[in-house]
Amino acid sequence: MKSKGGLQRISRAMGYTVEGLKAAYKHEHAFRQEVFAVAPFAIAAWAIPDLSAWIRALLFGSLLLILIVELLNSSIEANTDHISLDRHPLAKRAKDMGSAAVFLAIVNAVCVWSCVFWTLYGDTIWRWFV
Hints:
The chain is built from 4 helices and no strands. The protein has 130 residues and is mostly helical. The chain has a single domain (28-129), classed as Helix Hairpins.
């Protein structure tokens, strides 16, 4: 059941995207938490003065990656639960790997933000402690 191309396909794809985001926000507590955690940093990425467009994109992209990976993790969990609610080692492995992927996306964002801010403000911060 492949869809046809063209503007109608793009329109439908956008509808599916909106529905997916709404479903994640409504049904996935972790996704809501991450949206609220990411939002102030996303605003900061665009509000901090004197950052190049590349640095802003890097900061924003590291945050967006967290939400992307959480969406994928949530879809793995929903599909696993759809197949069976029974406890199974492979289901646990799939869910644990999805959780690990989210964790690594968060670590990535922390590292990116830390590197950028250390590069920009490290000398000033270092002087406070020395």
